[in-house]
Amino acid sequence: MRGRITTMKKNKKKRNFYQSFTHVSPSKQRIQLQAPRISLENNNLKKYYRILTDFDFLSAKIAHPEFGIDSLIEDYQLRSQPGLINAPDADRNTDTALQRLQETLTLSAHILRQDPNQLISQLWGRLQPFQTLPAIQSLLTQSCQSQDSPCLRPLTPSLTPPGTGLQ
User: Fold this and answer.
1) In-domain check, residue 101
2) Burial profile 8-31: b = 16 or more Cβ within 10 angstroms, e = fewer
3) Mean pLDDT per 10-residue interval, the chain, length 167 residues
4) What is the CA radius of gyration of the chain?
């Protein structure tokens, strides 16, 4: 196993979503967790992209008893609305990243339903081949920074990556 796992140190800086989410009422948490849909309803595609590439948001939505992994996957499916991909502020690289994230979450759903704490290992195990996409690289970095202890992560992909099918 030597040379197959490395660690990343936690960034001491807390991110805004986590701070605001943990200190608000359950009704406000529900509103925050509906932010992707609300962003698209308000034609704010950049905010939609930002939310769905924020590790703290993903983690909070998966762990929330009223939402979970299926609700998060539905948020990614919203990007296939007619005209959205060709919108003037659409970012092809970010849209590709969102597609890979949706596929990753779909492949990982059965595990994340049982244990939402497996999100980091599922992301790292499946998304490493796509680190050339800035949104994926940022999300993977955020995932390790979210922990209070060092983040153990594989150096090579260890799970079926999205878009490849079972081999």
Assistant:
1) yes
2) eeeeeeebebbeebeeeeeeebee
3) 45 56 86 94 91 96 96 94 65 91 97 95 95 96 85 80 72
4) 16
143 neighbors 120 (Cβ within 8 angstroms): yes
pTM of the shown model: 0.83
Among all chains, which residue has been given the structure tokens 């660690």? 7
What pLDDT does residue 132 have?
95
Residue 46 belongs to domain spanning: 23-82+92-146
**Residue 59 maps to a domain:** yes
Maximum distance among all alpha carbons in the chain?
49
Alpha-carbon gap, residue 75 to 97, rounded angstroms = 14
137 within some domain: yes
